[in-house]
Design brief:
This protein is of the alpha/beta class. The chain folds into 2 domains: 42 residues; 275 residues, Nucleoside phosphorylase domain (Rossmann fold, 3-Layer(aba) Sandwich), CATH 3.40.50. The protein is 39% helix and 21% strand. It has 10 helices and 9 strands. It has a 5-stranded mixed barrel with strand order 5-8-7-6-9, surrounded by 4 helices. Helix 6 links the parallel strand 6 and strand 7. Helix 3 packs across helix 5. The radius of gyration is 23 Å and the shape is globular. It starts with a helix and ends with a helix. The N terminus is likely disordered.
Length: 320
């Protein structure tokens, strides 16, 4: 498109040199400014790949052995990785091109080490669309993880319960999701080296991994839920009418994360398990106001159980 515009401008300049001279001067001036600032015009996907590669090059010598498992923690769930033997803790701000989490309950650190004898990475804090990030930016950590060698991804989040059989503090194994964000990290040119143009989404969450999580909870005497997670853009919480709609389309829990990362992970061929901490119950007929502090408090109270389930799942992966 840019090439066609340039050819058109040059053709018009040849026919009308006096009238087109100011336009060409502006174009040249803008190009010089872009080069001075290091801005690349066009081929945005290539620039995105370069940023991912730069982040990977920075992290490799700092995390040691190549990790195979990654854990992404949600609101109030940063402590759910307490079982890790930490080798390094790196602030997102120190990693080239790595987006920063702006949510108070997300520390914004990448932790590397071992968990149940397996090399692992953990993100203490994630990125959200409601922070103003694009879907590609939200998925940036997934691209970095895959290039570092991650083959299994454990996604955790804090979610509102839509299923009235649930209770605050329950942990739900995500069986499927509904993307209602209006965003998709795969929109735009496909990078064939990363995955197929049209990835199949009929089995996003690995059933074997989900079974390991359920077995871990049952062995500890804990009740564990299963259901469908609805992903919204946020940050405003759901109206009563929206809650009714979400229940009618089959959602058991709702939140503002997870979906973009899951799509990118499927595209990259990574196996996924999703675990939601149910922080509140959305009953449209008996609505009660929810606060960030209350949601985070419930998530933190469930972090020990979440950590035990994650450790058990990873331990089983080490055996298999």
């Amino acid at each position: 498109m840019a090439a066609l515009f340039l050819l058109s401008a040059l053709f018009k300049a040849a026919l009308y040199p006096a009238q087109m001279a100011p336009v060409l001067r502006v174009g040249i001036f803008c190009g010089q400014i872009a080069r001075f600032l290091g801005i690349k015009i066009g081929n945005n996907m290539q620039t995105y790949k370069e940023k991912v590669a730069a982040a990977v090059d920075y992290l490799k010598p700092r995390i040691g052995c190549a990790p195979s498992v990654a854990i992404m923690t949600g609101s109030g769930l940063g402590e759910s990785i307490d079982a890790m033997d930490v080798r390094a803790s790196i602030d997102y701000a120190d990693i080239p091109h790595f987006p920063r989490s702006t949510v108070r309950s997300h520390p914004g650190r990448l932790v590397s080490g071992t968990l149940a004898g397996i090399q692992a990475l953990a993100m203490q804090g994630r990125l959200h669309l409601y922070e103003g990030y694009s879907s590609q930016t939200v998925a940036f950590p997934i691209r970095v993880m895959r290039m570092l060698g991650i083959s299994t991804l454990i996604l955790t989040n804090a979610a509102g319960g839509l299923n009235l059989a649930f209770h605050p503090g329950d942990i739900m194994v995500i069986e499927d999701h509904i993307n209602l964000t209006g965003e998709n990290p795969l929109a735009g040119p496909n990078e064939d080296d990363w995955g197929p143009r049209f990835p199949d989404m009929t089995a996003v969450y690995d059933k074997r991994l989900a079974g390991l999580a359920r077995n871990a909870a049952i062995s500890c005497g804990w009740e564990i839920r299963k259901g469908v997670y609805a992903g919204l853009k946020g940050p405003s919480l759901e109206t009563s009418a929206e809650t009714r709609f979400l229940r009618q389309i089959g959602a058991d829990a709702v939140g503002f994360s997870t979906v973009q990362e899951a799509i990118a992970a499927v595209h990259a061929g990574i196996k996924i398990i999703g675990l939601s901490t149910i922080t509140n119950i959305n009953d449209p007929d008996n609505p009660t106001p929810d606060t960030e502090a209350g949601i985070v408090a419930v998530a933190q109270s469930a972090a020990i159980r979440m950590s035990a389930i994650i450790e058990s799942v990873v331990k089983e992966l080490a055996i298999l």
